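Before the break, one more example. Copy the sequence into your notebook; we will annotate it together after we see the structure.
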Amino acid sequence: MKRIIILFAALLLSFSAFAQNGKSIYQKYSDAENVSAVYVSPAMFRMIGQIPDLEVGQENVNLTPVIRSLTGLYILNSENAAINGSLRADAERFINSGRYELLMEAKDSGETVRIYTVGNDRVIEGFVMLAAEASEVTFICLDGQMPRKDFEELFSKAMRK
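Here is what the structure looks like once it is written out:
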């Protein structure tokens, strides 16, 4: 019986080792033809976070608290029909890992945009946006320890525009 339990535990650990995250999806597709890719490192976020009261346009939106809390930003935009299905499937598998909660969905003329977050009442640990249409797939993933209050304030101001 102990062997079965140990074998089962080892099997679960091996599955979690192969689980995808934003970084692994980025690494898999970032060098593909007709794929635009952007990665922002934790060092860059620390540097940007040193700028006091970083605000956007004429809106009084202070981005500094959220920027300081980020540890990674991964953006993929694919117009490569040969990999769009695979990219979308990998992103959905990552999202549906049971951790992410759907925050918003919008559908218009064959395009679907879904925004997800993961975290608790105080902190958002991740943000994912997946936009898909017939010829294009966009995947955006933010990692960090973002204060939920600051994130929600930024999100609500962005949605009002």
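The two ends are 60 Å apart (CA to CA). Helices lie at 2-17, 22-29, 42-48, 64-69, 81-95, 148-160. Try to locate both features in your own notes.
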